[in-house]
Amino acid sequence: MNKYVCEFIGTFALVFFGCATVLFMRSEVGLLGVAMAFGLSVVAMAYSIGPISGAHLNPAVSLGFFVSGRMKTNDLVGYVVAQCAGAIVASAVLYVIVQGKGGGYDVAANGFAQNGWSAYSATSAFLFEAVATFLFLFVILRATAEGGAGTLAGLAIGLTLVIIHLAGIAVSGSSVNPARSLGPALFAGEAALSQLWLYIVAPCLGATVAGLALRAGVIGAGEPAAQPA
Predict the structure, then answer these.
(1) What kind of fold does domain 3-103+112-216 have according to CATH?
(2) Transmembrane region positions (predicted)?
(3) What is the pTM of this model?
């Protein structure tokens, strides 16, 4: 069970630190700070739990590994359950924290770090999420493969997530992670829940294409790198 516990803790940390930055510090740190919070959370988890679970922290990432042939079905299910649970619990903790704001906190009026689109169309948001997730999985699958980035894989993956957020926050809220979108949406209300489908379908589509490309040899061999003892 260790790897599932690690995925729970890792996804909890990603959502807790990333969404907390959006909720409490966005005006102070700006979009760059938000992007760094998500990306650096991935880096931290990659070097702490990566040797145990691979630090997927994201159902789309696990799906990409599964489609590429680098994950078994039972592990896919276990990872996705652990990741979604971690995201939901982290969101619940943040919900309790935000309610302690002086004068109260109106989630309906101020939001809850949920993903969503408004300035751009659903088509634009869907396309960004799908393409960005494909590129994210391309980096992850290649960086963690034999002959890939080795000990620098965690840094490469985390910095890629920073770039994705910088590129797409204005378009889609920049999720590329169904669990990250699910947790806050459950507390944000009906509007967020009505848009949640996009943040499940688009990332899973992008991850599936990346996994199939790796499996077919289009983007190189998919042998995983040796894990530390």
Answers:
(1) Glycerol uptake facilitator protein (1.20.1080)
(2) 7-25, 31-55, 76-97, 117-140, 152-176, 196-214
(3) 0.93
